[in-house]
Amino acid sequence: MLFISLDPHAEPLADYLGDFRFYLDFYTNQSPHGLEVRGPQRWRINANWKIGAENFAGDMYHTPHTHTSVVEIGLFREPKAQKRKDGATYWAGKGGGTTYKLPPGTFAERMRYVGYPDEMIARAEQVWTREQQRVVGEDGFMVSAASCFPNLSFVHNWPKVEDGHDVLPFISIRQWQPISHNQTEVCSWFAVDAAAPAEFKQKSYRAYLMCFGSTGMFEQDDVENWVSLTNTAGGTMARRLLLNSRMGLLADDRPVVDPLPAEAFHGPGYAQVGYNEHNQRALLRLWADHLETT
């Protein structure tokens, strides 16, 4: 991936990304052979760009309501959309995201559970650090959606692409490009291990198009929410009220659920199980700090 800054005094990229680099590898570094990328698909939505970035960063609680129909038609192995709440959210430096909780098993068994063939698992073991492998193999968390400040997001999921119980994973990278306060251009790429089998690449691309391409089922569900939120936020009553983004906090600002200890989550940063808005607050806090310093 190429990151470009027009600021001659910008800090080094590694310093900017900080601990989020640990999680970035799950999406972009699955093999010594690098990524094969298709796209971008481009489309515009009548919504503010921050809503999509927030959603990918940590919005787990919309899933049981927004995407219930996708689960009910059998697109996923899990029988209930509420399974999402068993996963963890993580925040590390300039980015954070969501995970799913996996059934018991070894690293290889859990990678197979989400659809990776053995040869791709072996390549991941070559490039992922011991700690990265422990997040999956010991802690039992598999990364899903994520956002890197300000407007770069990722998604990793594993739907069924044909009849049967087998699932197949896909990875997508997207950028939220602001057009105005209420319109965003989405640039979405499909990404896959360049050394993956040809059949895997074909089916993974199909899974991406089915879920998060411009006409994907998840994409359509989400955009309906985002457009409605943007319109509602611009209404008379909404402008009189403060947005309450305190899910997961008690009245004295203590978290409802304590962060996962190091022995339960081997990734860096702050990780927490259950529905909360920690990541949304962190992302918007970075945006507010950015506005004050530029």
Explain what you see:
- The protein is an alpha+beta fold and 294 residues long.
- The protein has one domain (13-235, 259-293): Naphthalene 1,2-dioxygenase Alpha Subunit, Chain A, domain 1, CATH 3.90.380.
- Helices cover 38% and strands 21% of the residues.
- The chain has twelve helices and eight strands.
- An eight-stranded antiparallel beta sheet has the order 1-7-6-5-4-3-2-8, sandwiched between helices.
- Strand 2 and strand 3 (95-101) form a beta hairpin.
- Helix 3 (49-58) crosses helix 12 and helix 6 packs across helix 8.
- The radius of gyration is 19 Å and the shape is globular.
- The model has no long low-confidence stretch (mean pLDDT 94).
- Keywords: Dioxygenase, Oxidoreductase.
- Its EC number is 1.14.12.18.
- Residues 36-232 form the Aromatic-ring-hydroxylating dioxygenase alpha subunit C-terminal domain.
- InterPro entries: RHO_NdoB-like_C, Ring_hydroxy_dOase_asu_C_dom.
- This is Biphenyl dioxygenase subunit alpha.
Short account of what is shown:
Helices cover 38% and strands 21% of the residues.
Distinctive features:
294 residues, alpha+beta, Naphthalene 1,2-dioxygenase Alpha Subunit, Chain A, domain 1, 12 helices, globular, EC 1.14.12.18
